[in-house]
Amino acid sequence: MGESVFVRNPDDKKWRPAKVVGNCPEPCSYMVQTSGGTYRRNRRDILKPTANAHQPGDLTDLSDSTNEPD
Question: Where is this region: Disordered (predicted)?
């Protein structure tokens, strides 16, 4: 918990910075805190930043990213 990640916004499909705040009882789901609130997200909608990626606090838009979690 507390890990910085990116989450995909279901409305506009853009990746936004967030923090993991907990696990959910549903399989492969996590609670994430964004600037807009706390949401449950499946792991397919969560990306861990890579060493050469921007840090979540510096990112504004990753909508062109083709990286998908496994």
Answer: 39-70
